[in-house]
Amino acid sequence: MLPLTGKRSGEAAGLLWDDLVKKGNLGTFAHVRPNRLQALKADASERVARLHSELDQVLSWLSSEGPVFPHLNVNQVTKTFAR
Fold it and tell me: What is the DSSP string of 25-43?
C-alpha cells in the first residue's frame, strides 16, 4: 500500500483527478475503481479510500488534469519501497 493514500501501488499510479472527491472538513477521498489507466483484480476491490491530510498540500502543487501522478508507475513505486 502506498503510504498516505490508502492505495496499493498500482492504484496510486493509476489515479485520475476525476477519482478524487473533497468532502469538506473530512478531507479528500479517492474512489478506487477501474479507469483508462488501471483495471481492478475483482469487483470487490472498488472502494473509497481517504487520503492523508498531508497530501492535500502536495495535490495543490500538481496539475489538475489527467493522471494525478503522471510520472509514477508501479515499477518505480515497488523498487523505491524495496530500497
Answer: GG-EEEEE---SS---SSG
